[in-house]
Amino acid sequence: MLSPFLSGFLIGAGLIIAIGAQNAFVLRQGIRREHVFVLALICSLSDAMLIVLGVTGLGALIERFPALLNAVTLFGIAFLAWYGWLALRRALKPAAMVMAEDRAMPLSKAIITCLTLTFLNPHVYLDTVILIGSLAAPYSGGARIAYTLGAALSSFTWFFALGYGARVLTPLFAKPIAWRILDFLIAGIMFSIAGKLGLWLVLR
To answer: Measuring CA to CA, how many Å separate 3 from each of 53, 56, 120, 131?
Structure first.
């Protein structure tokens, strides 16, 4: 039988390690080597905070007040569509895109974008607060603390590995065509998530 710590780590990794808006942004900034530590730390701490809230019972509160989740979902859909459009526009205008790559994103803008992609994405709440939180039910006392620490550590491990590991792709992205492909992929991810969220909102 898995220890509570390892169980939390594997569950957290299984939910966090997926192609999503937050991961795509960290990957892009990692390739550009811009604000990697700060962004990875923000993502990790955000997940850790939400995991703790989920384990301590916020998930049940969200399920009692679905209007709260609906409001976050609507804002998330709008932001993801907007961010996807920016990526698509970069990909469709190579000359403008190449010039844009020479300008670093200001730290303040990177932080705001990261926080928005994190907290306006309902999947973050579903994964960390509700799913990870509900799966903590079999544990109590020290075992629950160990489970929570394991789940939180999986987020730190993933985002720092993603942000700094992206640097190995730097030679590939010396070519403008690579940026075009990445931005097309990012646009597709953003539009896809926005569409899925819209469908989920209609059918729930």
So the answer is: 21, 20, 33, 18
Name the token pair of 66. 């679905």
Q: How many Cα atoms sit within 13 Å of 4 on the Cβ side? A: 15
CA 156, chain centre distance (Å): 12
Taking the CA atoms of 154, 84, 113 and 76 in sequence, report the sign of the dihedral they define. Answer: negative
Residue whose C-alpha is closest to residue 129's, from 182, 62, 66, 191: 62
H or E, element range at 164:
helix 142-165
Q: From CA 35, how far away is CA 57, in angstroms rounded?
A: 33
DSSP annotation string for 42-80:
HHHHHHHHHHHHHHTTHHHHHHH-HHHHHHHHHHHHHHH
Q: What gap in Å lies between CA 58 and CA 73, rounded to an integer?
A: 17
- Please say if the pLDDT value at position 39 is more than 70: yes
Q: What is the per-residue pLDDT for 42?
A: 96
pTM to 2 decimal places? 0.74
